[in-house]
Amino acid sequence: ENKLRQQKYRENKKERLVTKPPPSSFRSRQSFVHVNSQICNTKSQYEECSTNSACGCFHPTDGNGNSFCGFLWVTCSELSSCGTPNNDCYEPGYICAHHTRYHDYPVCYPYLMATSEICPPMAIPLRAPAIDIHSNAKWIQNGLTVAGGNGSGNAINQLSYPYGLYVDDDQTIYIADTSNHRIMEWKYGATSGQVVVGGNGQGNGANQLDTPVDVIVDKERDSLIICDYGNSRVVRWPRRNDTSGETIISNISCMGLAMDENGSLYVVDTGKHEVRRYRINDTEGIVVAGGNGYGNRPDQLSNPSYAFVDRDHSVYVSDKLNNRVMQWKDGAKEGTVVVGGQGERNSLSQLYYPEGVVVDQLGTVYVIDGWNYRIIRWPKGATQGSVIAGDNERGGESNQFYYPIGLSFDLHGNLYVADQWNHRVQKFNIEQTTN
Length: 435
Hints:
Blueprint: H1 2-15, E1 55-58, E2 68-71, E3 80-81, E4 94-98, E5 106-110, E6 138-139, E7 144-148, E8 165-167, E9 173-177, E10 182-186, E11 194-198, E12 212-218, E13 223-228, E14 233-238, E15 246-250, E16 254-259, E17 265-269, E18 274-278, E19 286-290, E20 307-309, E21 315-319, E22 324-328, E23 336-340, E24 354-359, E25 365-369, E26 374-378, E27 386-390, E28 404-409, E29 415-419, E30 424-428, E31 430-432
Antiparallel strand pairs: 1-2, 3-5, 4-5, 6-31, 7-30, 8-9, 9-10, 10-11, 12-13, 13-14, 14-15, 16-17, 17-18, 18-19, 20-21, 21-22, 22-23, 24-25, 25-26, 26-27, 28-29, 29-30
């Protein structure tokens, strides 16, 4: 397969008419970068960055541009040394980068060998497990309290009505500690957390939050993105050594956040009953779900809460007051009911105020069934789901919830739930991943 890719590149190269400019007319390589390539700024040189194991991360020679994921085994005949003294490349479509086959010397690398077709991203949408969940997987029914659980309060071992959460690769949990107007970072195995955003009282200052309801991690920019609901804004906050954030979206009733592998941000605007997508550096965004007012038609939503984006850029939305989960395929003008939509009751074909939602590689939907105090798993195309956690009346025992709301998975497929009125985060370990 990789040989076919190399052959395709050579054929494309032969079709191009290239004229080498004189040294005085060298242009910076950035002007030639028009190929949709995956960036890998957080990875080391040559580190694996794709589902194609023959790809690795290349760092630009000047250290300022984006690192990119490219095919490692481009032949030497297809590479040439970068021009001196500024490490420029003569031909359009090339970038100067260090290469392992040239003993780490700077060479002009062809961007056609760094496309997402050749090097598909290994990253997957946020809140999805980075491993595929087996169709017969089960979870231990008694959850472990991994954050909070010490009553409502503002001590560092407490939470107060938590909403959304995000679990990082190392099982660090970021929690929207809503009534404390802060974001908490809870390390794996820790008995207390650390305030990483806010915690300076309720307010609209650059170092304050007002009723934050969701948080995600933007790994490429090493920052947190937060739904600052009470301030009607979305803020970005660096994860390292910073005491204030910046507003990236204003005048929005943000309830939920998601991000795709291209870095596009999806924001649930519960007040406008829609989900908007914002590409990198986009401040306006476009509607990708709802946007036609409050209602229960296929092109409408009613107070949506959370969203998830799959590998095909389909948007799954917890359509809260319609008691259903809707799927909006990329570019669609209306959605399809994939879970619920049968009224607000507690049968296995119904939901009662759905909240956090995640979809796995098989199209199975995992959704918090809020007022039924349970987590539902709904296979693709099924007419009903099954309970994977909860459904034991409301309460504070290890197998109970008191209004669950936020949902996430870790790399191993373990399930995490923000148990709002119990002021805690519960972890349900995966029990079975094979037949």
